[in-house]
Amino acid sequence: MSTSVIIPVKHKFTKPEQYKADHKLIYIEDPDQFGTLAGRPKIPEDTLDDEGDIIEQQYLENRPLQSQKLTIRQYADIIKQYLKHKRIKEAIDVLEIRMLKEDRVKPQNYIYNILIGACAEVGYTKKAFKLFNDMKKRALKPTGDTYTCLFEACTNSPWITDGLNRAKNLRELMIEKAIEPNLTNYNAMIKAFGRCGDITTAFKIVDEMVSKKIKIRIHTLNHLLHACISDKDSGLRHALIVWRKMLRLREKPNIYSFNLMLKCVKECNLGHKEDIEELLQIIQEQFPKVLNKPQMELLQIESTDTNSTEALKSEKQSDSKAFTDKQNQQNTKGLLTEINTYTSTDINQVDNELHGSKNSEQLDEILLSINSRYELRIQPKPDFTIVENSKLVKTEERTVPNLLSKTIKMNKVLAVQEIHSVQDKFTIIGGQEDFLKEMETYSVKPDIKIFTQMLPLIDESTEAEIKLLEVMKSQDIKADINFYNMLIKKRCLRLDYKAAFAVMDIIEQESKYRKKKYPMKKKIALKINIMTYGVLAMACKTKEDAEKLLNEMKEKQLKVNIEIVGTLLRQGTAHNQFDYVTYIMNTVVQENLKVNDVFVKHLEAFNNKCAKKHENKEQNKSNLLEKYRKFLTTYNNWLKEANVEHALQSDHPWQQFREKPPETVQRHNIEIVEPKRFYKRNRKYVPYAPRV
Fold first, then answer.
1. pLDDT on residue 367
2. CB atoms within 10 A of CB 18
3. Position 103 in a domain
4. Model-level pTM greater than 0.85?
5. What is the rounded CA–CA span in Å between residue 677 and residue 150?
6. What is the pLDDT of residue 186?
7. How far apart are CA 684 and CA 607, in angstroms?
8. Which range has the worst mean pLDDT, 149-163, 364-378, 545-559, 666-680?
């Protein structure tokens, strides 16, 4: 048997082929890899990922804990805390950074509505609509409050054209999506289009409400009155038409209605003569529908010529006939009660006079006196008064009708002319006395805002202002510091500076009286504010007055602003006082105030005026030449120190909402309280099962 021997064979290993690249790197041939790039040095994987991949990787790795998340109500509470302190930027960051990026919580439309409403209130229109678009991208359904806030954002937009375009697009979107507006949406639409100057669309929206059988209430009419104010040429005419419509619909005007009418009188005009005639024609068409039967009879009586004796005789005969009919029934008191203008004391007094009469002549005299008293109750100022010798004495009468009243006396209107002065416009709606009587008719008690708006509308005299203060005192209405500020401004505008400073004594006396009588009521306490010194600056004619005012502000620890300094500058330039103007310019630099364009325009106008006088040869002989040269040197140096070019760069109105406000001493008091976190345990209900 032969055996075989296995002899191992030695294999010869060959070295793999090597390839040389251009950059002098050696690569080994590998059959499993394609190309020559496989053998390159390995590059770290982090450098290969792009920015999006890194963000996605961090998003997947850094998942927030469940205990880190809050409820929607808790996030809303944090947002409301920021909004309470007017921190719009931080409130928006709660949604965009904390909720969406850090905690990864899906927001609800409640959060968006809060932020949209906050942006709308301050006029941050662009951000409000951006939040609205983000809301729709997250498949959140907008509510009625959302559209109301968006229209409010259009109303408060700093640019009228932008606000109007956004309001139109939003209304078209609601029509396209078949979204039925509610009453609040309609009111917001009217206010938005009216504030942006599109009164035609505002009235069309009211017509749309009528076509949909939505009852027009006083709030809608108030928004329509608000829209009329935007038309400065014919706004008062539109407002009066709306007021007559209000009376026709039997809607009771409230305190806001009267406030808006006063504001419309102050800021708007009636239009041209043709517009006024058209207004009177509209009122005459609506007038018979407002009157009841007894008032129609009164209108027919008043349409006769009261100056003629025949008219007086006919009135006398009709009154005696009415008395004869009532005398047969022995019901004299019923006659007076039917008139509904006498008090119980007047009824008893006239009843005694009628029983004491003996002949027909005395009866006629008494009846004529009754008629005169009756007219006294109807008219604010009677046409005639009756004296003992039965002679007619003509007294002051009201010749201008009150266009706010239900009953209007148009028989004495002889001609129509354009009205421009504020006092005349206030007269056609009743003036001070009739306007307050009209409020009393609707049981509307005036407040301090009514009298504050009424103050610029009364006559330019101290007597009229004192009378207004007496009326306020009789109605137990206490004036606030804003009312007194307006009173000082009114007196300064008519150059009655002595009376303007006398208001400060009134404020001081009233303040002491209120502190003594109401020591615990801080709301009614009078305290001089920076607006008081702003209007008092209008009365500082000399440099000494300005120094006294600014020193008093320092004692009161009030910071002077550019508006007060600008008012003082205007007084100095008006009286050509170089030392006064130089003092104000130095104050701007010392207080580090940022000048505005109005301040610089006053300085430029003053410099140009002085330069023209310098060119005049006759003016060169005076000492103004030397003063002007000193001022010109000071003026050129001041332009460099105040950095006027940088100061005149206008800030964007939304810049304050795009960046965090600077940290000041006052802002350290703002504390945001974090809500308590609630931990929920997932406990499942396990039914009882007995063991067998």
1. 52
2. 10
3. yes
4. no
5. 33
6. 94
7. 86
8. 364-378
Domain-terminating residue out of 358, 382, 406: 382
Residue 170's pLDDT is what?
A: 94
State how far the Cα of 265 lies from the Cα of 239, in Å rounded to an integer: 9
List, as one string, the DSSP characters of 504-536: HHHHHHHHHHHHHH-SS--TT-----HHHHHHH
Calculated CA dihedral for residues 438, 439, 440, 442, nearest 10 degrees = 90
**What's the CA gap between 114 and 97, in Å, rounded?**
16
- Work out the burial of residue 215: count CB atoms within 10 Å of its CB; fewer than 13 is exposed, 13-18 middle, 19 or more buried: exposed
Q: Could you tell me the CA-to-CA distances from 386 to 176, 251, 526, 536, 690 in Å, in that order?
A: 70, 39, 48, 50, 108
Q: Tell me the two tokens of residue 154.
A: 């259009």
Question: How far apart are the C-alpha atoms of 361 and 367, rounded to whole Å?
Answer: 10
Instruction: Give the pLDDT of residue 592.
Output: 82
Compute CA distances 107 → 2, 393, 680, whole Å: 92, 79, 20
Residues 571, 633, single domain; the answer is yes
Q: Name the residue among 305, 374, 371 with its Cα closest to residue 342.
A: 374
- 343 and 284 housed in the same domain: no
Residue 468, token pair as written in the block: 């207004």
Average pLDDT in the chain: 75
What pLDDT digit, counting tens, does each position of 114-126 carry? 999 999 999 999 9
Write out pLDDT tens, residues 2-16: 455 555 555 555 555
What would the two tokens of residue 420 be? Answer: 């421009």
| 349 vs 121: CA distance, rounded Å | 60
Residue 167 in domain: yes
- CB 326, CB 335: distance < 8 Å: yes
Does 4 map to a domain? no
CATH of the domain at 279: 1.25.40
Q: What is the amino acid identity at position 100?
A: L
- 423 within some domain: no
Q: What is the C-alpha R_g of the chain?
A: 40
Mean pLDDT of 575-598: 85
Structural domains in the chain (count) = 3
Q: Say whether both 104 and 183 belong to one domain.
A: yes
For residue 651, the SS3 value is coil
List, as one string, the DSSP characters of 284-316: HHHHHHH--HHHHHHHHHHTS-TTSHHHHHHHH
SS (H, E, C) 350-407: HHHHHHHCCCHHHHHHHHHHHHHHHHHHHCCCCCEEECCCCCEEECCCCCCCCCCCCC
From 348, 382, 416, the end of a domain falls on 382
Report CA-CA distances (Å) from 635 to 263, 582, 584, 630: 42, 8, 11, 9
> Domain check: are 73 and 191 in the same one?
yes
The residue segments making up the domain with residue 74 are 66-290
Which pLDDT tens digit goes with each residue over 363-390?
556 555 655 554 433 333 333 333 333 3
Residues 352 and 324 in one domain: yes
Is residue 415 within 8 Å of residue 446, measured between CB atoms? no
Same domain flag for 176 and 274: yes
Indicate if 322 and 365 belong to the same structural domain: yes
Residue type, 357: S
Same structural domain for residues 100 and 239? Answer: yes
**651-654 LR contacts (CB < 8 Å, sep 24+):** 653/123, 653/158, 654/124, 654/126, 654/127, 654/158
